[in-house]
Amino acid sequence: MPQTPRTLDDLDTPVPLVDVDRMHDNLRRAAEYCRAHGLAWRPHAKTHKSPALAAEQVRAGAVGVTVATVREAEVMAQVVDDLLLAYPPFGRAKLDRLMALPPHVRLTVAMDSAEALRGLAEAARAAGRRVGVLVEVDAGMGRVGVQSAADAVALARAAADAEGIEYRGVMFYPGHVRDNVDRQDDGIRTVSARIGGVLRALDEAGVPAGVVSGGSTPTFWRSHEIAGITEVRPGTNIFNDRTTAEIGACGWDENAYSVLATVVSVSVPGQAVVDAGSKALAKEEIRADTVGYGALLDRPEVVVKSVSEEHGLLDLSGTDWRPRVGERVRIVPNHVCVSVNLHERLYGVRGDEVAQVWDVAARGR
Amino acid sequence: MPQTPRTLDDLDTPVPLVDVDRMHDNLRRAAEYCRAHGLAWRPHAKTHKSPALAAEQVRAGAVGVTVATVREAEVMAQVVDDLLLAYPPFGRAKLDRLMALPPHVRLTVAMDSAEALRGLAEAARAAGRRVGVLVEVDAGMGRVGVQSAADAVALARAAADAEGIEYRGVMFYPGHVRDNVDRQDDGIRTVSARIGGVLRALDEAGVPAGVVSGGSTPTFWRSHEIAGITEVRPGTNIFNDRTTAEIGACGWDENAYSVLATVVSVSVPGQAVVDAGSKALAKEEIRADTVGYGALLDRPEVVVKSVSEEHGLLDLSGTDWRPRVGERVRIVPNHVCVSVNLHERLYGVRGDEVAQVWDVAARGR
Question: Which residue of B67, B69, B144 is the best one to mutate when testing the A interface, meaning the one whose CB has the most A CBs within 10 A?
Answer without folding.
Answer: B144
